[in-house]
Amino acid sequence: MNATAIVINVIAVAALLMAFIKDRKKAIKSLKIAGKSFIRMLPMVFIIIIIIGLLLGFVPPDQISKFVGEQSGMTGVLIVGAAGAVLHIPALLSFPLAASLLEEGASVSAVAAFITTLTMIGTITLPLEIKELGKKMAILRNGISFVIAIIIALIMGVIL
Amino acid sequence: MIRDWILLGIILIIAIILLTIFPDKNEAVTNTVWDYLVEMVFILPAVMILLGLFAVWVSNEMIMKYLGKTSGVRGIFLAIILGALPTGPLYIAFPMAAVLLKKGAKISNIIVFLSAWACIKIPQEMVELQFLGVQFMLLRLSLTIILVIIMAVLIEKIIEWSEGKAATM
């Protein structure tokens, strides 16, 4: 277990203890919500991990870096960014997937673009966003989000 | 939910078939799967507990109360903090944003709030820290905050401009 995992677990346990001291009923309700969300997420966790395993085991790193590595340049970043915008993967699970792509030779820009478009842009939730906030605002938000995701990705590629 | 389990079954069958055809890949694949599984097991339950605690203690009404009455730099700052709290998926935030807009909240604040809700969530940052390291996480976080604020102001200007034009016509 690395330092990050230890810190997060300590925070969670401390918060949980505080919650139980403050209000037992609410704390138990929180645990129930936590358990339900965990179970709801579980199949997706396994799916992503198996995909990562197959990806690292079967796709050679030079193939991955050809499509989304340094030499793929702007096109690679745009493709991965578009994939992130369309795909519907829980944000929490995009990070291990991104880490495995990095391990396999994907560029920092491509990985950053993927995570950023995945979290910021929701094509599946777009109809709901249009219904609640209007067409103009929803399309502007998602469209400009794509542009700034690419900008973030390119800057990160330069710095890291 | 059921769909996810079916998908898992399909992926599992594909994996088993692939590994039967190429038994030499067996070790590499199972090692990777095991490593990532261990990392997830160490971090996901803690993240879920924090999610649960926030969902119960920080109500949507509370967020809306604070977000509706502040503006300026403080408003933007507050919109980021409130959006970043680990409180559920993005589609919950849309109706909240709609109500706030009707009540006269600034468009830029609402855009910042929605974007923070989507991509600056505290549990997400924790998992990002775990898998991609502190440098990657902090750099992406700061760039995201800066650019989201710029985007929010831009969208506000565009909407105000287009509505102004519509009004004079």
Quick tags:
heterodimer, A: about 160 residues, mainly alpha, 2 domains, about 85% helix, about 0% strand, B: about 170 residues, 7 helices
Class derived from helix and strand content of chain A: mainly alpha
Rounded Rg of chain A: 19 Å
Low-confidence stretches of chain B: none
Give the H and E element order of chain A: HHHHHHHH
* DSSP, total strands of chain B: 0
- The total number of structural domains of chain B is 2
Please characterize this protein's 3D structure.
With 160 residues, chain A is an all-alpha fold. Chain A is 85% helix and 0% strand. In chain A, helix 1 packs antiparallel against helix 2, helix 5 (91-103) packs antiparallel against helix 6 (108-120) and helix 7 (126-133) crosses helix 8. The longest helix of chain A is centred in the N-terminal third of the chain and has 35 residues, at 24-58. Chain A starts with a helix and ends with a helix. Chain B has helices at 2-21, 26-57, 60-68, 72-84, 90-102, 107-119, 122-168. Chain B is elongated. The chains are: A mainly alpha (160), B mainly alpha (169). At the A-B interface, helix 1, helix 2, helix 5, helix 6 and helix 7 of A face helix 1, helix 2, helix 5, helix 6 and helix 7 of B.
